[in-house]
């Protein structure tokens, strides 16, 4: 019985600690996927690396208006390795990490937005961000999922990876090319981060 009570006490302390960490972060590390020779998904002249960087810049603007400190893993079109991205994220302890990507599939019919996380500490962040994106973007909801992507598997802070749509889908690609859509994605991510912090 004593062992059980001790276990419950430890679990409660861990939960409290996780909640405290979620509420106390002031820095958001924003990771625009790909860059440089790594174009990511592409169709014609629509490159994932450009979409990710533009969306990241828009997200940074929203977060700064909200009073957050922001760090971008890249600010222009150059290559940065996955370990470098993780090292940047892990150098900030009072922070969260958001990696921005856009999908590509062999089938041109695949569409929608999905948000990934790897560890339990990141689940609530993923859920809040995904929910807020869907409220802004009004597209197919592919859900919140777990994955072992390098940048969310090796970071020590709450970390998510957002796939903001498919460049391989004609209708979705046309939306991705529009500034209003990338703005909606950025606003949705920012709102979700704020909701996560408030929980």
Mean pLDDT: 91
Strand order of the largest sheet: 4-1-5-8-6-7
Approximate strand percentage: 15-25%
Query: Can you count the helices?
Result: 7
Assigned CATH architecture: 3-Layer(aba) Sandwich
* Fraction of residues in helix: 40-55%
Q: What's the CATH C level?
A: Alpha Beta
Largest sheet: 6 strands, mixed
- Written as H for each helix and E for each strand, in order along the chain, the element string is HEEEHEHEEHEHEHH
Please count the beta strands (DSSP E, at least 2 residues each): 8
- The count of domains is 1
What is the first-to-last residue Cα distance? 32 Å
Write down the CATH topology.
Aminopeptidase
User: Which value, in Å, is the CA radius of gyration?
Assistant: 17 Å
Shape: globular
Q: pLDDT under 50 segments (min length 5)?
A: 1-20
- Secondary structure class reads alpha/beta
Task: Tell me the CATH superfamily.
Answer: Zn-dependent exopeptidases
Oligomer: single chain
Provide keyphrases for this structure.
single chain, 199 residues, alpha/beta, six-stranded mixed sheet, 50% helix, globular
């Amino acid at each position: 019985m004593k062992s059980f009570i001790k276990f419950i006490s430890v679990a409660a302390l861990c939960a409290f600690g996780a909640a405290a960490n979620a509420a106390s972060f002031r820095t958001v590390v924003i990771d625009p996927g790909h860059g440089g020779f790594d174009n990511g998904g592409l169709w014609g002249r629509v490159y994932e690396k450009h979409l990710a960087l533009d969306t990241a810049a828009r997200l940074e603007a929203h977060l700064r208006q909200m009073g957050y400190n922001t760090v971008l893993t890249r600010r222009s079109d150059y290559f940065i390795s996955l370990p470098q991205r993780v090292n940047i994220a892990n150098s900030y302890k009072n922070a969260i990490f958001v990696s921005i990507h856009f999908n590509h599939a062999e089938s041109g019919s695949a569409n929608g937005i999905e948000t990934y996380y790897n560890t339990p500490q990141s689940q609530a962040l993923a859920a809040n961000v995904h929910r807020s994106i869907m409220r802004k973007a009004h597209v197919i909801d592919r859900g919140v999922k777990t994955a072992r992507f390098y940048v969310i598997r090796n970071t020590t802070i709450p970390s998510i990876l957002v796939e903001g749509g498919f460049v391989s889908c004609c209708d979705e690609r046309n939306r991705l090319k529009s500034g209003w859509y990338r703005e909606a994605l950025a606003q949705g991510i920012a709102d979700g981060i704020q909701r996560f912090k408030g929980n």
